[in-house]
Amino acid sequence: MYGKGLRTLSISTVAVMTAALALVFFYAPLEAEQGFLQKIFYVHVPLAIVALCGFIAGGVMAIQHLRTRDPSWDMRSYVAIHMSLIFGVGTLITGSIWAKGSWGHWWVWDEPTLVSFLIVFLLYATYQPLRFAIEDPERQARYASVFAITAGAFVPLNFIAVRLSTAYVHPRVLGGTSNLPGPMALTFVVSLIGIALLYTTFFRYELTAKHARAQLRALRRRLAGDEALGSIPSRGRSAAPTTLHPAAMMSARGAGREGL
């Protein structure tokens, strides 16, 4: 179900990412003050944007879970937040490298954009410990959804607060005040699309893997239950043969051949 169209998505991601890297290194001009170091901008900023959008998407999916009680929405919300945390780590690493090259320090605490993103990242870093501290699956999904919705609402509020801040160091690449020339703007847009496709591809891959593992666990439980029922003798006559799912029969036959 989740793997449908995944091959096409993966090929598209590789193609766009290759085009983005070509534009970054061979098309976009060097920035006057920072030179080659500024090219990390085409990775750092798209990573940050996609990570924040992924956090918000996780909150929207959590709303769907609370509305429908469909566990698949809870799984989507979990994977979206998980992927955003990974992209958030990339954002913080590339941001620190950029800060070291530009300002001579790995971190600048009086820069609101850096600090606000770190706050959001640390907030979501508590998502998984909170989720897996609850053993009951239904309560776990419900509490995780409430957390995802609350934290997801905080993300745009935090973004607006930073935009209204007066001590602004980062360039405003999105909005009327953007001063990016044409080649830089084109490179940034292609890089943003590439990072977004990369996020979507990883999102779909993890969903597919989790769905496959869930199906495998269900099949193993069914096989164990069928074997347990088959080992109980009937009174006065032999036990009735157990009917297995076709996929279970294939797995059982394969295991028998391996044993031989």
Protein described:
The protein has helices spanning 6-26, 41-68, 71-103, 112-125, 127-132, 137-163, 182-230, 246-259. It has 260 residues and is mainly alpha-helical. The protein has a domain at 30-180. The radius of gyration is 25 Å and the shape is globular. Residues 171-177 and 234-260 have low confidence and may be disordered.
**What proportion of the residues is helical, as a percent range?**
over 70%
Distinct helical segment count: 8
Low-confidence stretches: 171-177, 234-260
What's the overall geometry?
A: globular
| Beta strands, count | 0
Radius of gyration based on Cα positions: 25 Å
- Portion in beta strands: under 5%
**What's the SSE pattern?**
HHHHHHHH
Mean of residue pLDDT? Answer: 81
Largest sheet: none
| End-to-end gap | 35 Å
Structural class: mainly alpha
Would you kindly provide a brief summary of this structure?
This protein has a domain at 30-180. Helices cover 74% and strands 0% of the residues. It contains eight helices and no strands.
Write the layout of secondary structure elements.
Blueprint: H1 6-26, H2 41-68, H3 71-103, H4 112-125, H5 127-132, H6 137-163, H7 182-230, H8 246-259
Helix pairs in contact: 1-7, 2-3, 2-6, 2-7, 3-4, 3-6, 3-7, 4-6
For this entry, give a set of tags.
mainly alpha
